[in-house]
């Protein structure tokens, strides 16, 4: 069995040597156990600003397992993952995607391979707990999964992008044409036999997390708008609710007029204008988000551009 391991990297020079050391030790042991016959470790440099690519070149010169892919500019975690997956299509029996920061338990790759050999085409790495996360990140992550479920998006809770895809699943995933990538949702659409491998998340070995609150919010928006039309339906319901309130207000005004009561309407009129104006702008923004997705899709621009490959 030949395995590919895809690792997206953005400014990870501090951790890559240790990551590669642990991966190499694991691969050597699995080859001795006859779990693997070959393995390629593919580091995808997502337009890093530090010496990440220099470290990848150094590792490639010393290790027969290591390969490198340097993207011309930063295209984001999901697109960098996609670049590595596309390079793996037709070149392996299974591919594992894992982050470079050593928070994912590298030793669980062995369990994933055993599950694959038992007939599972997709194996998800799922966190047992989120003990290493800050309180803010833990709460926002739980809120994200809860919101996605309410929006009708099928996700594995506490699963990031640590997973194994068999040859058939990888080929099927590569046929997806969309540019707005949300791999956690896309893999769930494949329909192949799947299972979970649970692990305890480690502290980040070195460096800082690249997922700022801004990026987390953008990622959540991508997930919602790529897999659900619920926000558009919510806007429709809010519009109907506002229409009902308006009709009730008109009836009240007419009744008050015919009863000869004076209506002091300046404050209520001003409030209604601001409320409806804000609601309209919000609704236009949500609709615009979907139109923006369509705009990106129809242009069919490449998801990434390769600068160097070793």
In short:
This protein is α/β, with parallel strands linked by helices.
CATH level-3 fold name of the largest domain: Spore Coat Polysaccharide Biosynthesis Protein SpsA, Chain A
Q: Spell out the CATH superfamily of the largest domain.
A: Spore Coat Polysaccharide Biosynthesis Protein SpsA, Chain A
**Uncertain stretches:** none
Instruction: Name the overall outline.
Output: elongated
- How far apart are the first and last residues' alpha carbons, in Å? 23 Å
Query: In what range is the share of β-strand residues?
Result: 15-25%
Mean pLDDT across every amino acid position? 84
What is the CATH top level name of the largest domain?
A: Alpha Beta
Helix content: 40-55%
Tell me what you see in this structure.
By secondary structure, the protein is of the alpha/beta class. It has 2 domains: 2-210, Alpha-Beta Complex (Spore Coat Polysaccharide Biosynthesis Protein SpsA, Chain A); 230-299. Helices cover 51% and strands 16% of the residues. It contains 10 helices and 8 strands. It has helices at 16-32, 52-62, 77-88, 108-117, 135-150, 167-174, 183-188, 213-227, 230-258, 266-299; strands at 2-9, 38-45, 66-71, 94-97, 122-127, 159-166, 194-199, 306-309. It has an 8-stranded mixed sheet with strand order 7-5-6-4-1-2-3-8, with helices on both faces. Strand 1 (2-9), helix 1 (16-32) and strand 2 (38-45) form a beta-alpha-beta unit. The protein is elongated. The protein starts with a strand and ends with a strand. The model has no long low-confidence stretch (mean pLDDT 84).
